[in-house]
Amino acid sequence: MTLRFSVLASGSTGNAFYIESEQERLLVDAGLSGKQMDRLFQEIDIDPASLSGILVTHEHSDHIKGLGIVARKYQLPIYANEKTWKAMEGSIGKITTDQKFLFNMHEVKTFNDMDVESFGVSHDAAEPMFYTFHHHGKKVALVTDLGYVSERIKKTVEQADAYVFEANHDVSMLRMGKYPWNVKRRILGDSGHISNEDSGLALADIIGNNTQRIYLAHLSLDNNMKDLARMSVDSVLKERGISLDLMDTDHQSPTTLYEVG
Asked: Coiled coil where (predicted)?
């Protein structure tokens, strides 16, 4: 076995990502209730008690809603940077000192046979960061909650074997939709979320010959549709002569465990 992962849930209502190697089982974010998190793990036949730890991307509720509950229930260590710890401590309940760990931005941590690299993103949180996972020459990149995709991010995540990559909204749907203008402006801004088209443009710059699969993630329930996201990103990629499997994610159902081979 090499790396296996499942996008447990992805969207504006809750996010969670699971990845494993032979010796490690890690959860990234727990943005749904404790009961829902248990259900998601049950659907992919993984016991949450077997997790090695939880990595946190940032303090927004759709990423930490069930964090404290899951960590306390299964006695799991939590890894986050200092600013994120400060921003979320009032929202996750009491966490014992022996469960609190620092994972700084632009750091590589080794978890047994898996190396995890953190990198910063432009988003309206205290110090948001996401992760790439490395194991025996294979690489998986988790990249959402982006206002824009910087050259530094592209360099960090380029040529991964698999991507979980944001395609948050269709610009026309967002502009014509029901959100108040200040919310629309936030989403469209450099600290918000990227559109389907911008997702395709960024992916065209970073995917390599070894890239096998892309999961389109963090879709807005109000300003996007799975078919539209897939078609929009696929159209941009095909304009660049790129044809790849584009996979859906869901805000309340996990993807099938996928083995990076």
From this structure: none
Assign 52 to helix, strand or coil: coil
Identify the residue whose tokens are 């009491």.
94
Please, are residues 34 and 16 in contact by the beta-carbon 8 Å criterion?
no
Query: Is residue 42 helix, strand or coil?
Result: helix
pTM of the predicted model as reported, rounded to 2 decimal places: 0.96
Please count the other Cβ atoms lying within 10 Å of the Cβ belonging to residue 177. 14
pLDDT in tens, 161-196: 999 999 999 999 999 999 999 999 989 999 999 999
DSSP 199-234: HHHHHHHH--TT--EEEEE---TTT--HHHHHHHHH
Give the residue carrying structure tokens 């600013």.
83
- CA count, 13 A, side-chain hemisphere, 105: 16
Residue 152 corresponds to which tokens in the numbers above?
């530094």
